[in-house]
From TrEMBL:
Pfam families: MerR (PF00376), MerR-DNA-bind (PF09278). The keyword Nucleotidyltransferase does not apply. Coiled coil: none annotated. Residues 10-79 form the HTH merR-type domain. It comes from the Bacteria. PANTHER family: HEAVY METAL-DEPENDENT TRANSCRIPTIONAL REGULATOR HI_0293-RELATED, REDOX-CYCLING DRUG-SENSING TRANSCRIPTIONAL ACTIVATOR SOXR. InterPro entries: CueR, DNA-bd_dom_put_sf, MerR-type_HTH_dom, MerR_fam, Tscrpt_reg_MerR_DNA-bd. It is found in: Cytoplasm. It comes from Azohydromonas lata. Keywords: Cytoplasm, DNA-binding, Transcription, Transcription regulation. This is Cu(I)-responsive transcriptional regulator. Its main location: cytoplasm.
Length: 141
């Protein structure tokens, strides 16, 4: 008897990875972290995924693309799956992440400015003296 059109297709890990844009290695990693629930396995031990898991993997990938950490993604996944969620909780996580990104951008901007300043002081010629190495070698910084 043919499978009903409404049944979820059964995908192996490679197919689920390809459909979600996540590598098979990361699929296993997300399972080990509990971000993705344990899936059915065949008698020979192969994982079987459906559209629900692929959708979750896409959610995780998009969250990673936005720079969320694994703990934040776990919390966002729980909120995403809870239809009674409070959107204030989601917004709080997003705004905390924005604040973290702003802090990291400021740190990286300062690093960039320092390196540009040091590079502009370096002659970059055959001489051995180099203000970049002098700065890196200073104690107490």
């Amino acid at each position: 008897m043919p499978a009903a059109a409404t049944e979820t297709p059964v995908l192996n890990i490679g197919e689920a990875a390809a459909r979600s844009g996540v590598s098979a290695k990361m699929v296993r990693h997300y399972e080990s972290l509990g971000l993705l629930p344990q899936v059915r396995r065949t008698d020979s031990g192969y994982r079987q995924y459906g559209e629900r898991e692929v959708h979750m993997l896409r959610f995780i990938r998009r969250s990673r693309d936005l720079g969320f950490g694994m703990a934040e993604i776990a919390e966002l996944l729980k909120l995403w799956q809870n239809r009674r969620r409070n959107s204030a909780s989601v917004k709080r996580i997003a705004l905390e992440h924005v604040a973290d990104l702003e802090r990291r951008i400021a740190e990286m901007t300062a690093m960039k400015q320092t390196l540009q300043r040091l590079a502009s002081c370096c002659h970059g010629d055959e001489r051995p003296d180099c203000p970049i190495l002098d700065d890196l070698g200073q104690l107490g910084r």
